[in-house]
Amino acid sequence: MVDATALKEIRIPQGRLVHALRDRGSSGWQLRHLSVCSSTETALTQWLRQQPWLARQPRAVLAQHQRFAHGQYGRFWMAPPGGVWLSAALPWPNGEPSTGLFGLTVALAMAEQLESHGVSAAIKWPNDLLVGSRKLAGVLPKLVFRGHHVRLARIGVGLNVCNPVPQGGIALRELLPPGRCRVRLWQLHTLLALERANQLAAHPQRVVAAADQRLWCRSVADPASGEHWAVCGIGLDGQLLLRQGTRTTSWTRWGGRSEGNL
């Protein structure tokens, strides 16, 4: 059943944002603005079903408020007004893509965008951006394949701007002057970061090196055993490379391949 609230669109901000993207030489996004929806991921899926993907223009659904936002491992969370909540579909280079490297590429592009505005954010592998130990943003990556070729890339982004945050979170309003932490401005910066990620995809070694420099910590605890491992770096497929004495292992926690039309 279609969520009726997902059909409420805000038309004026859409025009302004499209205008701002064009002024910066953007590749031409198709945008939908929703006042409230269950999830931008669900709304994007509905849009792709209604208007099949032709791999020409990137698309994004942006919402003021999500009631059941999708997180990693299918978790749900509230996304109140005041943040950047969006789900995008965009072309992605073929070659030997992995969802892990795709997600890290987006996280790196987001970190670079924040750094250009004076906010230093570390990458908490695999999908969060932190300031200090507090979560500022998260990404949810998914590559959709047709056979061995990437049909499209899907990415969900949540960025705290001036919204209330839970314990352990942080918003840009705590880090930037009021005039520089407006939601529409950071919607623009997020879409530009996704375009930048598309460019970075052609340089996986550069992505891995830059993401490794921005890792939040150099040791992790195995959630199952409680063992502590030293972080040695990141593999070219986005894996976290670990060492404990003479033992080595790697973690891959990104979602797997997805076959289909969405």
List the keywords:
26% helix; BirA Bifunctional Protein, domain 2; alpha+beta; 262 residues; globular; nine-stranded mixed β-sheet; 13 strands; disordered C terminus; 2 domains
Instruction: Give the low-confidence spans.
Output: 1-13, 254-262
Taken as a percent bin, the fraction of beta residues is 25-35%
Largest sheet: 9 strands, mixed
Rounded to the nearest angstrom, the distance between the terminal CA atoms is: 17 Å
Shape: globular
Please trace the helix and strand order, writing H or E for each element: HEHEEEHEEEEHHEEEEE
Percent of residues in helices comes to 25-40%
* Cα-atom radius of gyration: 18 Å
Q: What is the CATH third-level topology name of the largest domain?
A: BirA Bifunctional Protein, domain 2
Mean pLDDT over the full residue set: 85
Strand tally, please? 13
Number of domains: 2
For CATH, the homologous superfamily of the largest domain is named as Bira Bifunctional Protein, Domain 2
The DSSP helix count reads: 5
CATH domain class name of the largest domain: Alpha Beta
CATH architecture annotation of the largest domain = 2-Layer Sandwich
By helix and strand content, what is the structural category? alpha+beta
Would you kindly provide a brief summary of this structure?
With 262 residues, the chain is of the alpha+beta class. The chain is built from five helices and 13 strands.
How does this structure look, described?
The protein is α+β, with helices and mostly antiparallel strands. It has 2 domains: 4-216, Bira Bifunctional Protein, Domain 2 (BirA Bifunctional Protein, domain 2, 2-Layer Sandwich), CATH 3.30.930.10; 219-251. Helix content is 26%, strand content 32%. It contains 5 helices and 13 strands. Strands 1, 2, 3, 4, 5, 6, 7, 8 and 13 form a 9-stranded mixed β-sheet that branches. A 4-stranded antiparallel β-sheet has the order 9-10-11-12. Strand 10 (228-234) and strand 11 form a beta hairpin. Helix 3 (99-115) packs across helix 4 (183-200) and helix 3 packs across helix 5. The protein is globular. The two termini are 17 Å apart. Mean pLDDT is 85; it is low at 1-13 and 254-262.
